[in-house]
Task: inverse folding
């Protein structure tokens, strides 16, 4: 998993600030050496990724943890825009849907996106986070 001691970069895209605070704490507990930034909706995340792509594409996040239900631009719209803009042509970022949705159509839809590695149900836990990162 992270053998070269390079920090793992994570972009958390979720409109719930309390949830983001908890998720960041859990990720830091599950993994050493992480750089985590959070965006409160898909539009902010797209803007941040566009800026990274323009200035230093090597700094694209290793992981994007994406909520579905957010104002301004939801997770599905984010995925469509991310693909349309070809933000990560080399496929560096691994995208996981992190959602409290229990609807099977959301889970199926998430799995229909080739960009999405998996659907993980909230609440996050240290074990779920370790499992997700171990898979990579």
Result:
């Amino acid at each position: 998993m992270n053998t070269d001691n390079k920090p793992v970069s994570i972009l958390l895209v979720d409109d719930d600030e309390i949830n983001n605070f908890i998720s960041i704490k859990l990720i830091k507990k599950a993994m050493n050496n992480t750089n985590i930034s959070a965006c409160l909706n898909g539009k902010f995340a797209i803007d941040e990724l566009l800026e990274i792509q323009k200035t230093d594409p090597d700094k694209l996040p290793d992981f994007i943890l994406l909520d579905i239900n957010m104002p301004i631009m939801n997770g599905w719209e984010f995925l469509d825009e991310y693909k349309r803009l070809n933000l990560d042509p080399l496929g560096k970022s691994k995208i996981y849907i992190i959602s409290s949705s229990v609807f099977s159509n959301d889970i199926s839809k998430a799995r229909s996106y080739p960009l999405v590695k998996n659907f993980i149900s909230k609440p996050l836990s240290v074990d779920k986070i370790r499992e997700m990162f171990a898979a990579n």
